[in-house]
Write the structure tokens for this entry.
Amino acid sequence: MAFFFEVLIGGLLSGIMYSLVALGFVLIFKASGVFNFAQGAMVYFAALAVVGFIDKGVPLWASVILAFIVMTLFGIATEKFVLRKMVNQPPIALFMATIGLAFFVEGLAPLLFGNDVRPLDIGLVDEPIPAILDSLNIVVSRFDLTAAGLAALLVIVLALFFQYTRVGRALRAVADDHQAALSIGIPLQHIWALVWAVAGFVALVAGMLWGARNGVQFALTFTALKALPVLILGGFTSVPGAIVGGLIIGASEKLAEIYIPPLMQSVFSGNFGGIEGWFPYVMALLFLLVRPEGLFGEKHIDRV
Amino acid sequence: MIKKSKQFIVAAAVSAACLAGAFGPAQAAEEQYFMLPSYRVGPYGANGAAWYGGFIDYLSYVNMKGGIDGVQIAWDECETEYNNAKGVECYERLKAKAKAAPGPIHVMSTGISYALVDKTAADKLPLAMMGYGLTMAVDGSVFPWAFPLVTTYQMQASAIIKFLKDKNAGSLAGKKIVYLYHDSAYGKEPILALEAESRLNKFELVQIPVAHPGNEQGAQWQRIRQEKPDYVIMWGWGVMNMTALKTAQKMGFPREKMIGSWWAGSEEDVVPAGDAAKGYMSATWNVSGKGVPLIADIEKTVYGGGKGNLSDKSKLGTILYNRGVSAAVLSVESIRAAQAKYGKGKAMNPEQVRWGMENLNLDDARLKALGATGLLPEVKTSCDNHEGSGKVKLQQWDGSKWVVLSDWLEGNKALIHPLFQADAKKYAKEKGITPRDCAAEAKKK
């Protein structure tokens, strides 16, 4: 039983790491109704900026601030050169623009900061907490727990921001209808630049945590693959949904990886491991059939 | 800023080189032309930059020393991003230029080499797969144009087992070994060999696959913690390697009991993992460092002459850089072997280069003459053995550098090579290939 709980807890904590990436998607989608294909590339860009500045002798804290400035400038540039010309265009056009943006960022980031795989030491060692290991024989990582705490903090701040601030309400209005928002005086350009900058900040947090865990490298762009099923489950417009979706995906994929392959082997023989790559997508697909808007997503109703 | 400008210039030069490859004039008559479908960007760009940097530096070195008996070497790079479709596209774009006097083609990707095995055979161009690729091509009677030179995944796995046996007083009976592998053709290749070794040496083999890209391995390591193995053999690539090391640390599994393949044993794999990598071992078919005279001479001659290919010179002497140099040494020596038979000072045609690769004899004396003693093992190829060596060394990361633990270790050839032959025979039957009679060809010589 201890093993089951170890897998479950490990899965929940991994799920939080997926949620961190998913949050960036949610922010942009809430503000512009665009699925930002470039979010994974932004995670890579942000983490690479941090290690790039560290390599130039800048201390960690200052590198983080500089990386945030880079991401903010990136957000402003994205609004100015990509999104501004696409106001009121169909969502698919905006989506295609973000695909182009992803390729651009994936090329630009290593050009600016180098493509070497580099470590990122943020002072957190990924080791088990001895007290839990000794008393319950369960491995719970100090690093993962801290990441979970950070994610919780981010979610609370973002949820309050969207719910209770004028800017947050403006963001939601823009997401509903660009032109209607413009007609009542909401400064669309500022709102978009702001939300891309905030998404850049979330990407920075996610990039630093994933980078500290696995090294800063191109593979950080793949973290987006883990965020997609999280979004489908949690809903594209819900910040708490990203967290809950992450928890469900993380826990279920780990439990599936441990318990399903032996069952399949006993029935079909052969080797059936490595299923956590596709299992979350199957789950998301099944979930789509039952609840297309996700657990916390807004139900879309059209008047006819 | 200077570095940035240099990067732009390098990028522009690579693009220009690729365009030249597509539309440029054919090379001069006495030039040997290497097409290089390489990768310097994308998920494995850092690995490719070091490997191809070493490869090109050696070609420059040979040119600066007068060429291959006077024949200069030309080459074009084409960016594949480690993507199979782009790899094939690069090959198709450059093959016309390589038709007259090619060098062996190196794609540094199992996936791309799988895609090219049949194409290169049809086009009659020599394909080298040094330490990767389709391993049954060891059987040259079925694969005359493909060369998995030096050693294969299966022989490597067998050599690792030999190393562990030696560590355990000659017996692994009753031990448990986990095989943690990238769930791809690359990771699956050694399974048959490990299963055969498991039956022979009576150890329990537990296979645990990791889904691509391998940046999340919590469940796999929880299972390893539960299995309590004596050793973990890891077949990883890219992010999977450092994630495995970090997760092993998290789960409290000693890194001194982890042994990786040669694609999980470069500085790119261990440096980002920090302290988590200390004590970790891996196989390798070439050593690292600048202590080898050839590497030191490349630094002096090529970088001293301002013709170095690396934008980051700190990679000089790393495992992957030295592997690129080793691959280039084998390629040039194949052409030299061909020249010895067909005429010195002449550019060799595809069939002649193929002959050179199949009759390569890079012994200790020759390695010494090249200043490459100890860099790579002796290699002697033949029609029925396109591998030519099957030897690896074991090395351990001490936190700052790789320390060699063993001499050259050869896998169990009597156990492993029949597996290749059986697979090749099956392949020949499926494709309608009539195998060459290697014994008869050897008698004719």
Observations:
- Chain A has a mean pLDDT of 88.
- Residues 2-32 of chain A form the longest helix (31 residues).
